[in-house]
Amino acid sequence: MGEHLRARHLPAVSVVLTLAAVVVLSLVGSLIANAVPEWLGHGVGHAVVAAPVAVLAVVALRAWPAPKAVAPSRAARRVVIVGLLGVATGQLLEVIGARVDEPNALVVEEASHTAGQIVTMLSMLVLLVGTGVAAVAAARTGAAPKWLVAVGFVLALAVFIFLFVGAPGA
Q1: Domain for residue 12, yes or no?
Q2: DSSP 89-156
Q3: Which of 149, 126, 127, 129 is nearest to 138 (CA)?
Q4: Domain span at 95
Q5: Residue 169, domain member (yes or no)
Q6: Quick one: angle between helices 146-164 and 107-141, nearest 10?
Q7: How far is CA 103 from CA 35, 91, 92, 100, 110, in A?
Q8: Whole-angstrom Cα distance, residue 122 to residue 119?
């Protein structure tokens, strides 16, 4: 029974730990960003998002329990994993293009940065859809506690606001 309970809560725990890692790494990254050239700080900012999201995608792929009975739950899991992998990829592309504002930036760096922005935004939309489907499936089947569905909804809403209103301070 205890093992089943741990497996059932693994997605929520791994998401919370990933968010905590992003916050901690962002704080460390902001300290580093103040001590290095602007373009390097820009790259560090994207790397501190890419690394924990990539780890979360791997954890989701390998350790999150696969839903057995409900097709929407299985689809949601796949869509969420694709969204996470896309966000990590987009952020890595932005790291490659971090020198975009430098006068001697290469065309490939500018293209990489732009592609990274597009991939990140589209992947966040995919993640939003996957989270929504997962919340509906979990609420419908009782597979997740209601608080987890609420947290997922709040996170999805935050992503939506970030996408269409903009990042705070941007």
Answers
A1: yes
A2: HHHHHHHHTGGGGSTT--HHHHHHHHHHHHHHHHHHHHHHHHHHHHHHHHHHHT-S-HHHHHHHHHHH
A3: 149
A4: 2-164
A5: no
A6: 150
A7: 21, 22, 21, 8, 11
A8: 5
CA distance 144 to 90: 30
Tokens of 72: 């929407």
Helix, strand, or coil here: 85? Answer: helix
Q: Give the gyration radius of the chain's Cα atoms.
A: 17
Q: Are 42 and 73 in contact (CB under 8 A)?
A: no
Taking only the tens of pLDDT, the chain with its 170 residues reads 455 545 566 676 777 777 788 778 878 877 887 888 888 888 888 888 888 888 888 888 887 767 666 677 778 888 889 999 999 999 999 999 888 777 777 888 888 889 999 999 899 889 888 877 877 777 777 666 667 677 777 776 776 676 666 555 44
Tell whether 82 is covered by a domain.
yes
Domain count of the fold of the chain: 1
pTM of the model: 0.76
